[in-house]
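Researcher: Please translate sequence to structure tokens.
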Amino acid sequence: MSIRIEHSVYKLFTSIVLILLLIPISEAAAQQFTGYVYDTHHNPIPDAQIYIAALNQGTVTNSKGYFEINDLPEGNYHVQISYVGYKKEIRQINTTKLNGPITIILKESTLELPGLTVSGSPQPTDILSSSQSISVVSAKDFNKNSGTTAMSALKNVAGVTLLNTGSGVDKPVIHGLSSERVVVAVDGVRQEAQNWGERHGPEIDPFSVKKMEVVKGPSSVLYGAGALGGVVNVISPDLPESTNHTPVMGGQLDFAGFTNNNQGAGAIQLHGAKGTVGYRAEFSHRNAGNIATPKGTLFNSGLRKSNGSFMVGTSQHWGRLSLDYSHLFQKVEIHENPADAPHGTPYQPLHNDLLHLKANIPLKGLRFDVNAAYQHNDRQEFSSSMATDPSLHLVLNTSTINVKVHHTLFGPVFGTFGVSSMIQTNRTLAQEKLIPGYNEQDYAAFLFEQAKLGPLNLSAGGRLDTRNLDVLKTPDLGVSQANRKYNAFSGSFGAALHITYNFSLTGNIGRAWRAPTVFELFANGVHEGTLRYEVGDPNLVPELATNVETSLKFVASHLIGELSVYNNHISKYIFPEETTNIDPQSGYYIYNIKQANARIRGIDASLSVETTRWLTLDGGYSMLRGDNLAIHAPLPYMPADHGRIGFRLTHPKIGRLTDPYFSLHTTIYAKQNRLAVNEPETNGYTLVDLSAGSDIHVGKTTLNVDLSVTNLFNKAYIDHLSTYREFALNPGRNIIMKIKIPFDVIKGS
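Model: Translation complete:
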């Protein structure tokens, strides 16, 4: 690590220590929350989970359905009550107004119902009370649907598609926007990893994910610049805790196999707690060969990926403090156009380090959230497997700190204010200078207030951002030393009206911004990721998005549904425009980076219905239209209209099988003929997927087994958002088996 990097990390963690020391640690008034959980026949439900997400604090009910949580700080909190086979209940409590035990009635349901979400507002809330459209991929659904990448689990979320490169790179596309226009975060920390490249996917290990949440629509107030399309927030497993300070230790073995590319994957996880200290460690590895399509194998399309992580923390009367570190390595082989390089073997090795410090400190009437992170992303690209020196070498170092103060003003009004900063350095070390080196400093302050007025929930927020960008002199790109300063305001206002207990009407207007990337400003050369010669424009100005959205949401024990309509107007949208000129050395067309006003409109619909105790029907539909308003033509890389329909069969127990299921789903994609200039057309197609699985009791161990088949009929098709779409088909049939084996080393009392 360079002296500059070490100094950046030192400054970051010195700032954190100073902030923690300045927080006036005093004993907050301790409150007690108690209650009983019953079914609809008033029978007690033992082992039901009671969870307060804002505090990462919870408990389970005893044999009489009784629970109690002590030492709660003052404040407004949402509480989630859940038990397998029942609809989750969400209750909002004010700990200063608790008056004896409450009674919770859970209704039976086989649907995977959404619970509390932590991504749409500073305070965890339920889906019906959020003014924005939010989708949750639960732990069960993530395990069933995730493939080689974590983002692949989003493929069935309405309004979300994937920009993919083979089986190693999946980038989320929310309402037609991706890359630098969508923020991908892990536990609220933005992932900074050269997101501007189409072949640069989020470096997140699927084995390290608990669940995922997708916020659709501008979200810059909470997540900063770039969240024009929305946010994908990856939630990691909680810090383990011991009950009554009894030591506990356990773990899990994971195995996965994929027939399409002969992929094998596995992970071992160990977690435990003793007294007030908890810990978690994990190592995973996967290896895959070439991708098989219905008409042949894609040469040089394999991958190798390893990930190791460790987390330690403490939970005490004054709050929680945790530190986790992860290192991910991956080598992705890049399949090239056979017409240009039939035997090409380029590949990208990547190392990504993440150090994350998190503190949650409740005080009298306040709660401090401190999140600080350091990320080191080292990306190389080799022109062939025989090359000894990289043709491209980018090193990105990012230090971030976010401080949020949650407060209660008066009556029904509560909210959050905070500050954030980011220090980022990028260096281009290889001979090829695709982008210049730069130093960047970002600073922001924000305020977000919420109020519950009977059946009406209101929210409003604002944020001020400033960015200072110093670009280093790079003669190879014709770039002199330059400086750019950007200032922007983001805001949002939303309302959620509970028409009934299960039914709400929501509306939201949001404003977000994005500064042009260094690549868009100063690129001047061949971009292998897009097979273009691209020329930037140093006079670009920030994009500004104004989105209006309204939704109807319904969440009941036997039905979940949502219908959303949105209109996103983007001022000064940045895009590459093809010219008729060809670069003589590479043979690629020259593209100039341009700006124009744009608009993206669309509809998302999703529905799940439990028709009987054993049969669930579900489906969804997404349609959008993206237009360049300057030339009245479609925007490039817009996903095709598509719909999904299917069913799931379930049963509570068959012999040693618990919650066995069988599902079959069909997804229909329309022909994409709304095209930008010189954009190739893609035909419509239909894919059929099936899956089955169960918990299996073997002795004292309960295994989880899932078997799925994607592209059941081995359909030959081309995804409009595939970076290989001009010269290769998408993968054919793939049979996937996943096995989870939990184990206990020390079992608490």
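Researcher: Any highlights?
Model: Residues 1-6 have pLDDT under 50 and may be disordered.
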